[in-house]
Amino acid sequence: MNQNPVQTVLRSKIPQITLGFWVMKICATTLGETAGDLLSMTLHVGYAVSSMILIGLFALAFAIQLIAKTYYPLLYWLVILATSTAGTTLSDYMDRTLGLGYAEGSLILLSALAAILSYWRLSVGSLSVQSIASRKVELLYWFAVLFSNTLGTALGDFLADDSGLGFMGGALLVAGALALVTLLAFGTRISRVILFWAAFVLTRPFGATFGDVLTKGNEKGGLGFGTIGSSLVLASILGCMIACTSIKERKTRPESPLDSAV
Hints:
Layout: H1 5-11, H2 19-42, H3 47-67, H4 73-97, H5 102-124, H6 135-162, H7 166-187, H8 192-215, H9 226-252
Helix pairs in contact: 2-3, 2-4, 2-8, 2-9, 3-4, 4-5, 4-6, 5-6, 6-7, 6-8, 7-8
């Protein structure tokens, strides 16, 4: 049976879920935390203005991602990074400027994410990211990514501040939860789709708390690297991994007749 060429192209716009994917996801979400704080706090731009700037950058990267006809590692991870930085400032604006607090902000964002995933599951029949074969599902995927990263920031701040665990305690708790998800993936028959989304959501609060561990001073339980130094190191690591992924992608991906149209 001949396959719709548009569906084939859309499937190829999501990377394979490998160990490298998760390392890059954690790196990108941690960078989103440090870069968001760099803009809003270190540069004194403020949460509201930072949110508008970063959401604008996300909208631009997102539009280019939708127009693209195939998977480009640099473009994909730029959108992930944009959702993470925008999520950081948006969450801070909700929790601090609007005064909702970390717990209430987390509940609102969790409800929004649950609504997106529920609608996706009911309307499509699957939440698998390896079967994104329509523009509708692609949009749902990215909305879920944006809300999960925003939720992760609020949840990470809740664990670090309101729970009393501190930055390091919050990072260790989420790391333990990620380790549990990994064990369940290898040792049980629990749906891999469910475990994927659990891990996808958890990597963001891990990035949020670990980012704070890197940037905050020793008196606050951090390592004191600052937002600038931490962001530069994380950006360098992510950039190197994207470059390696791009080289591998060019060597292994079969040429598509639509590539020339991009």
